[in-house]
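> example.struct
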């Protein structure tokens, strides 16, 4: 799988360097700096192959986060890992930039040791990692057997001893309409990309169920939802059978699912420009 992970600042200086396998040397960090960071204008792809070494990178704020592989690996899995590392940094430090990495480099190394084992991704759930990978100001009060049970159990994303005086759950549906229109006003392409974000403040191990009515008929037009992506807490077997989203939610805010709809899209509004030329002036309405 992955041979190394590097974090650079925008100048190309190595802030974090972690090797997981013996098939690469630490000097490979200079190869990425010279061929990618130094020539940022010529690099268009987030995947760069130099010889037998492949570099996968993402950019966030003033950081470059790079993963190195020597074998044919799943690129989607690598980028999912990189964005999970980014999410861990934001969750732990509030922001993930050069100053945050420098101020907490010991904790960053500890997190990288926990999320990768010999180059293979392990448990990357924030709630579980915070039980035993803690900052100086926050110490875990959970016993070791409970940590082991959550890290290796069936629900690694949620503890069993969560308790609230008032049980609440909030669901937000966020949608974005993408539209491509020709000069004559003809719709060339339209689709809706949506996500369901949930905030859960529930006690114990509750099981929640949602019904996804993706074939609902409205005004003789069907709503066909495709490309559904779910959080790992969703039981995919039940969804395939009866289109029911059944899950034990993580504590706090999380993204339950993403989806896309490309058929029978009703445009929310249209912009019709009116241009009038009067002498040397042009008026737009």
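> example.seq
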């Amino acid at each position: 799988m992955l041979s190394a992970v590097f974090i650079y600042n925008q100048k190309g200086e190595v802030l974090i360097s972690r090797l997981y396998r013996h098939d690469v040397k630490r000097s490979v960090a200079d190869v990425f700096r010279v061929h990618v960071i130094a020539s940022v204008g010529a690099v268009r792809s987030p995947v760069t192959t130099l010889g037998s070494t492949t570099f996968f990178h993402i950019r966030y704020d003033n950081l470059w986060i790079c993963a190195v592989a020597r074998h044919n690996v799943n690129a989607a899995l690598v980028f999912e890992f990189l964005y999970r590392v980014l999410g861990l940094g934001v969750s732990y430090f509030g922001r993930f930039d050069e100053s945050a990495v420098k101020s907490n480099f010991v904790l960053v190394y500890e997190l990288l040791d926990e999320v990768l084992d010999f180059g293979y991704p392990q448990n990357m759930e924030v709630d579980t990692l915070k039980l035993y990978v803690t900052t100086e100001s926050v110490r875990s009060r959970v016993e070791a057997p409970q940590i082991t049970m959550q890290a290796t159990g069936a629900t690694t994303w949620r503890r069993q001893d969560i308790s609230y005086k008032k049980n609440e759950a909030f669901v937000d549906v966020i949608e974005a309409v993408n539209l491509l229109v020709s000069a004559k006003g003809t719709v060339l392409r339209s689709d809706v990309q949506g996500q369901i974000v949930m905030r859960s403040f529930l006690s114990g191990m509750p099981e929640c169920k949602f019904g996804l009515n993706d074939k609902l008929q409205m005004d003789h037009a069907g709503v066909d939802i495709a490309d559904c992506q779910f959080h790992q807490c969703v039981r995919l077997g039940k969804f395939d059978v009866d289109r029911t989203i059944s899950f034990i939610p993580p504590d706090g805010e999380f993204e339950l699912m993403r989806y896309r709809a490309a058929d029978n899209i009703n445009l929310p509004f249209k912009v019709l420009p009116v241009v009038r030329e009067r002498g040397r002036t042009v008026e737009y309405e």
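> remarks
The radius of gyration is 24 Å.
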